[in-house]
Structures are given as structure tokens and as C-alpha cells.
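pinned: reference chain
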Amino acid sequence: MKWPSVQLSHGIADVIRGVTFSQGDSIHEDREGYLPILRAGNIGERLEIERDLVWVPERLVSERQRLRKHDILMCTSSGSALVVGKTAFAEKDFMGSWGAFNAVLRPTSAIVPKFLFYWLQSGDFRAWRDRMAKGANIQNIRNSDLMNLAIPLPAKREQFRVVELLDEAYELRRLRREADFKAVRILPSLFLKMFGDPATNPKGISKKRIEELIRIKSGNFLPARDMAEGGTFPVYGGNGVSGFHDKYMFEERKIVLGRVGAYCGVVHYSEPKAWVTDNALYVSEKLEFLEDYYLVAALQQANLNQYAGRAGQPLISGSRINSVEILIPSAAMQSSFAKLVFSLLRLENSWHTASGRLDSLCDLLMNQAFSGELTSKWREAHMKEIMVEMSQQARALNVTLPKVMEAI
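pinned: its C-alpha cells
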């Protein structure tokens, strides 16, 4: 069954501009007579209303511009094409508003709000966004374009059914990502449990300076433009993998330290057959008894970023970190730790595989939801009620049903 397609301007949703204010109008703390303003950074998997706020005088915010329950906040202007069109759903009223680089879609009673929100996550909407976003440097979606945006509109009864199914799928995805976030914290916790906090060293483990344990070198220059298209060997830069190339520097895995940038000092354990650029350092030599997995964790605990030079772009070097001390437990303790890390990393790979499958399932459900395939059997069981409701809906919105539906 092909659902009718209806523009937002035909009684489906209002598009409301954000608040325009000058830098002099805004402050970074709550104050009487001021209201908080949401910006693009507040649009995540959920609407973040507790952080990254600015406050503006209440007189600048109209009553219509106060965020209401079931509003959909959308970024409509950004230097990043990936950010434009991002949306978040307001689960409750918010005593505040949103900035001028965003807009709110406020659903009317003609549509289930969450149905519209989910459609705005679909591939059809992303394709529309890519066609409509304009600007050489700053990508923009005009409010007038949003008003002319046409969406599929089944009967409300079916909209509720689609939302119910997608809610279940997205709750599974949320729980999966929450589990992934917690998993990232297991290894640091394991280190602290086995060896104690390096800052206080409650277990009295011996310490040595980095320069007594390892030698580090800078990687080799490889700008992004020179990375081979279709390359399969990972290239490590200042914050992990930055691309792929058709050549590699090392057969074996290397311990890699970010050298420049905001993430300098971050520690990664490379894949075999990888390239390390000059935005990173790598461990070229180490004492034989040092376990790689232990050394990675010990360097991570050292928080090497704190030793970065800040005169220009943050950077670290051997001379800056050579005197930093790290805990050196016995070879047996290191080996026990390494075995546990290896087991945890195998589990982590399984988790990532499961997460990928769940994401693929959610994408498939999304495609099926708005093609009508997801609810086809349910629709067949409720066809009579749906047809009555869709006829009433078409008359209320002054739209024409597809001919195949008129004939039913």
C-alpha cells in the first residue's frame, strides 16, 4: 500500500525560527530575567538540556519560541554537512528556547509527533537534506524548504504502530551503546584494582622513568592527500586511525602516542601492518620484560597530555615525557594483567560485532517502517478501520488519497 505524501505546510507541522541574539546579549550562567538557549551541540541521540547552554534576556524570546513537549529541534545551519539536519525530540516542556542556527518542527494533531521524528532519521530524509542543504562553506536548510518537505502519512493508528516498533528497536540500540560505554571503563578499573592508583601507589610497586624503559620515535610524514585510495593498512595519526594506505611501516603491532593536537598523549596499540604518521610517536624499543598490554595501560594512566607544550598547537615529545614515572610491577603480574586484557578485548570485539548487527537491524527496520513493509501484516488485520481513518484524514488535510486506496 502506498501512503499519501503530504507537505508539512498542509497542517502537519509548524516550522519555528530560533532566537537571534548578539554575543553581548548572552551570558554563561542562569540569571533572573534570562532564559537558556539550546544550540546544535545539544542535539545528540537525545536532547541535552543540562549542558552547553547560554542565557539571553527573556524579552528576546517569544511565547511561540519556548520549547514544548513533542517539539523536534533541528540544526539548520552548520559548517559540517553531517550536523545539518540532525534532530532531537523534546520529551517534556523546557523553560527556554533555541538559537538561530536551529529550527523547531512543532507537529500538529494531524500526525503522531514521534512518527515525524523517526521519519527525520530515515534515508529518505537524509537524501532530501543532501539535495537541499546549500552553501559553499556553511550548509543551510531554509525554513521555507522545510515547510515544503513532503512526508508519507499513513493513518494515525498505523503511525502509532510504527512508533511502537521503532521505539523498541531504538531502546535496544540505546542499551547496547550504554553497555559499550561501560565496557570502555573496564580496563582502567582493572589496572587500578591490580596495581593501585599510580599517583598514590598504595601497593608500593617500584617506579621507573619512561626514558629508562622505552625509546620513542616520530612517525613518517604522510598527508591525507597522499593516502592511497582503496588502501587497507591503517594509518595512525594524533588520535588513532586517521585513514588507510596501500603501504605500511611495521609488520608487528606498535604502541602509538599522539604527538600533536588536542589529543596529544593519547595511547593506542596499533594493528599489525600499519603506518604511523609524524603526528604521532611510537615505541621503537622497550625493555624485554615489559608486556605490551601492560605498558599501554600504564602509559594511559600517566595522562601524558598534561605534559604537552601549550605555546601554540599542543604537542608532546620525548624530552617532555622522558622523566615521567610509571609503575613497574613484576613480570608475573604484568603477564596476568595482559592475559585478562586479551580476554576482555576478545569480548569487546564480540560486543562491537553485536552492535554493528543491531545498527544494521535498526536501519533495516527504519527503511521498512516508511515503505509500509514493517506494518503490512498488521495493516491487513486492521484494513477496514485504517481505510475509514485515512479517508477522514485526507478530507481534514485536503489531500488526495492514492487511486489504489480510493478503490479499496
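why pinned: The CA atoms of residues 75 and 83 lie 7 Å apart. The chain has a mean pLDDT of 88.
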